[in-house]
Amino acid sequence: MSDATVPLIAVAHGSRDPRSAATMSAVVAQLRTTRPDLDARLCFLDLNAPSVDRSIDAVAADGHTGAVVVPLLLGSAFHARVDLPALVAAAHSRHPQLRLAQADVLGADPRLVSALRARVLDTGLTEDDDKLGVVVAAVGSSSAAANRRTEALARDLVTGTRWAAETGFATSSDDRSVAAAAHRLRTRGARHIVVAPWFLAHGLLTDRVESALRGTPMTEPIGSHSKLIEVVVDRYEHAAARLNRKFSLSA
Asked: What pLDDT does residue 145 have?
């Protein structure tokens, strides 16, 4: 492969809320600052521009022979498992000379849990506050296994602290909701509650959480935290190595 380092195409979800696109732009700007050697480009699956198709077409037009597509997604849901692979396959059909690899999603990487804990501490709270209850607000899934993995975030978040935590889903209105999670924390003895959004950016769902727990303080989302940048680079480098191995074997 002729590229010394292939471009990194960061793929965000997309949102009607302008805060989301602004945060994703800040993430890629921080990525470029941290790794100026990388040709990092931002695109969106839906609702914002540029699209994935247009970004891959631009990489091909610039003469690159390969690229790594990095989903800026916390979960391996339909977008990561179906939509994005289909877009990548279609792009390869348009540009057969362009070798493409899709990196793993960000997932519940311990570094991201650490970033979320840092967001809680940014509010002035301390790790030895045994009366603090943290509602980890996340997106629910139709997959019970995926929900169980997300629920484990609360346990991971409070490891090494004296906090209590429960996971609540922004898309639920039953006993898995953020309101139900806050109630469980009060039952467990929490005197004050804070919401920690397991989201990369503020948007319509974080607004829904804020409305459901009106008056409860909410931390900033993960955003362009340095730990997120570490994970993005890690996902890119693993996929780039896989792409180079595949090219070497086929050469």
From this structure: 82
